[in-house]
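Structural biology now treats backbone shape like a language. To illustrate, our science desk offers a sequence and the tokens encoding its fold:
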Amino acid sequence: MKLGLLCLLLISLLAGQQPAPDPVGRWQVKFVMAGVEKNLILVAQPKGVGSFLLQDTAPDNKPVADPQPAAWSQLTNDRISFSGEVELPIGTCCRELGTLIFKGKFTSKNAMAGKLIFVTSVDEEESPYKFRSEVGTFTATRVP
């Protein structure tokens, strides 16, 4: 009898859970670093494979011609992580190569939001990590 009640309780709890959102697909990502908004499209394929289509990060805010390799992983509690190596404008004078890392959470099955960090390989003595880095925020919506 107790085992039957326990089974019913577990079934009712599991029935109320929603499946985790599926990140596979195309995502329009808007991100802001140092007060500047930039855009990319994340193309998330199965098994954590992906690419970035950089929309306005080339010189003169033009699109980057070739997709850049990226990777993603779906974490617990509807969290998502995706990253890739990119070249971005830093400030008003410079461009730097580095790793762009997004860490966020699904806000619905078709939207996510969170924080990002761009880490370069340039030495920076004042940084606790000794690398130049910029932090920011992002939002993303699924492209139909």
